[in-house]
Automatic annotation (TrEMBL):
The lineage of its organism: Bacteria, Pseudomonadati, Pseudomonadota, Alphaproteobacteria, Rhodobacterales. Residues 194-329 form the Thiamine pyrophosphate enzyme central domain. GO terms for cellular component: acetolactate synthase complex. Keywords: Thiamine pyrophosphate, Transferase. It holds the Pfam family TPP_enzyme_N. This is Thiamine pyrophosphate central domain-containing protein. Belongs to the TPP enzyme family. It comes from Celeribacter indicus. SUPFAM superfamilies: DHS-like NAD/FAD-binding domain (SSF52467), Thiamin diphosphate-binding fold (THDP-binding) (SSF52518). One of its GO terms (biological process) is L-valine biosynthetic process.
Length: 559
């Protein structure tokens, strides 16, 4: 029998799961790269381990299957570990497969020797080291199942570099049929409990649904729309749940929480029965738990029993996949025409949303120091196709995009789950996962500079991402926090940046680059970026004074 090395066994196993790309910053371990190449898996060599991890994350979220990332023994693996939290927060099935120092050299002061396995313990759902060559494929199967199970998230498998060329002998390549992608295994709901929940919703005067990231990752878009239509109950989303329902639907309330519409939080405050699906009701979704649910009946559906009762008392907790739960609720609702619809409440909610839209439109006027960011969001909506993907950075960018960009139902919106700068590589990964759609990365000048070196990666790999930079030469959120929490204190060292010509920088990489200073040039510049066909960057000069729709103490919110 021809020898199959550990490197070959791993490559064959991940190829069996339909893996197209492997994201990395190379650092030796050529046995592995040769094995991947022999299996036809494209290697995406990035400009940092963080970029590679974020690309794998963006890819995994949009593709709905694992994104693989490599880290070289020592500093490379450590850098990948430091980049795992976003995938953890977003429940993204990223598989970090890293190498470690030769076992005979450990604890002997070898160059780059560091124990990286413990670094992954708090930032992954599963963390193991391969010890036996014959178990290589088995351990990859276990990693895939852990990453894509009912509670998905990042995992880590460490492979000592000296094992890669060793004989894996009779390692089992095949694996389990019907696994390897998100939602391969779904938790079936208890129909009796759902019937009870439906009865409580029917008795409510002001019911509200909160759809979280679990609805999106379950791909429950049609099921969400069907239940909303059947029940007549308005639907709010968390930032991670944006896209769970078409935000142009009259029943859509928009995003609640910290990066939100002001009116959406007010509507949630007025609700009497709340059905939370696929959300942990964490700090971002509840503006640091300032959104009060006390005195309301809270019904919670999730695949993770650890979230029940964690932040709020629940009247009912149902362990279930979001799509299956929504489909069952619609079936039960359709079978019982006697359940009342909250039409008066839904009509009042729609009127409040329409009134908010008028205020938001009036608020878009240019300011003395630049364009209003809301005008950029409106221009993007005009240019982007309905099924294009908008990827948003964290901070003010997430607030502007989350609150103001009206998204169609579907997996059309992804965002940094917490790490500033995530969006440029994250959007590149998304673009590779969905080449039939265009992907736009929305960031600020502060976020762009984290991974601007990967403009070269975009050109080399021909990734047609459109990067839109809302540039105010500052960390705007820091400035506004100082203004409202610290009496207008000025600390330019942590706020202000030098004015950089990002369009010229982009062109030096071979990327289409343009600068926009006037509002009337926004749409033409964005259309030209789309028409360029390849990677493009549009540097838009916005006002530093315009305050994003954050919900934090002391913020004088308008929208």
């Amino acid at each position: 029998m021809e020898m199959v090395t550990v490197a070959e066994a791993i490559a064959k196993t991940i190829h069996g799961y339909g893996t197209e790309y492997y994201f990395c910053l190379t650092g030796g371990d050529h046995d592995f790269w040769i094995a991947l190449q022999d299996e036809g898996i494209r290697i995406v060599n990035c400009r940092s381990e963080a970029s590679a991890a974020y690309m794998a994350d963006g890819y995994a979220r949009v593709a709905g299957r694992p994104g693989f990332v490599y880290g070289q023994r020592g500093p490379g693996a450590a850098n990948v570990a430091a980049s795992m939290p976003d995938a953890l927060w977003a429940h993204s099935p990223v598989i970090a497969l890293t190498s470690s120092i030769f076992r005979r050299s450990r604890d002997r002061f070898e160059y780059q020797d560091v124990d990286t396995l413990p670094m992954y313990q708090s930032v992954t759902r599963w963390n193991r080291e391969l010890h036996v060559p014959q178990r290589a494929a088995e351990m990859v199967h276990a990693a895939v199942n852990a990453a894509t199970g009912p509670v998905p998230g990042p995992v880590h498998l460490e492979v000592p570099a000296d094992l890669l060329p060793q004989d894996a002998q009779q390692t089992r390549i095949g694996g389990a049929t019907g696994t390897g992608a998100l939602n391969s295994l779904r938790i079936v709901p208890d129909r009796g409990k759902l019937a009870e929940a439906l009865a409580l919703l029917g008795q409510a005067e002001r019911p509200l649904i909160i759809a979280g990231n679990g609805v999106v990752s379950s791909r429950a878009f049609e099921a969400m729309a069907a239940f909303a239509a059947a029940s007549g109950i308005p639907v709010a989303t968390t930032t991670g749940g944006k896209g769970a329902i078409d935000e142009r639907d009259p029943l859509s309330v928009g995003v609640i929480g910290r990066y939100s519409r002001k009116v959406s939080n007010e509507i949630l405050a007025d609700a009497d029965v709340v059905l939370a699906i696929g959300t942990r009701l964490g700090g971002l979704a509840t503006a640091g738990w300032t959104v009060k649910l006390d005195g309301k009946t809270l019904l919670q559906i999730d695949t993770n029993p650890e979230v029940f009762g964690r932040n709020y008392d629940t009247g009912m907790s149902i362990l279930a996949d979001a799509r299956l739960a929504l489909e069952t609720l619609t079936e039960l609702r359709s079978a019982d025409a006697g359940i009342p619809r909250p039409d008066a409440w839904a009509k009042a909610v729609a009127e409040r949303i329409d009134a908010w839209r008028e205020v938001e439109r009036d608020n878009r006027k240019p300011l003395a120091d630049g364009m209003h960011p809301a005008a950029v969001i409106a221009a993007l909506r005009e240019v982007m196709a309905e099924d294009d993907i908008l990827a948003a950075d964290t901070g003010a960018i997430a607030a502007w995009a989350g609150a103001l960009f009206p998204i169609a139902a579907g997996h059309n919106f992804i965002r940094s789950a917490g790490s500033l700068g995530w969006v440029v590589p994250g959007a590149m990964g998304a673009a590779l996962a969905a080449p039939e759609r265009r992907t736009v990365a929305l960031t600020g000048d502060g976020g762009l500079l984290y991974h601007i070196g990967d403009l070269e990666t975009a050109v080399r790999m021909n990734i047609p991402v459109v990067i839109v930079v809302m540039n105010n030469c500052a960390f705007g959120s820091e400035d506004h926090l100082l203004k409202h929490r610290w009496g207008g204190r000025k600390i330019p060292e942590i706020v202000d940046f030098h004015d950089v010509d990002f369009a010229a920088m982009a062109r030096s990489f071979g990327v289409h680059g343009a600068t926009v200073t006037e509002e009337e040039d926004l749409v033409p510049a964005l259309r030209a970026a789309y028409a360029a066909g390849g990677p493009a960057l549009v540097d838009i000069r916005i006002s530093k004074e315009a305050e994003a729709p954050h919900d934090f103490p002391g913020s004088p919110r308008i929208v």
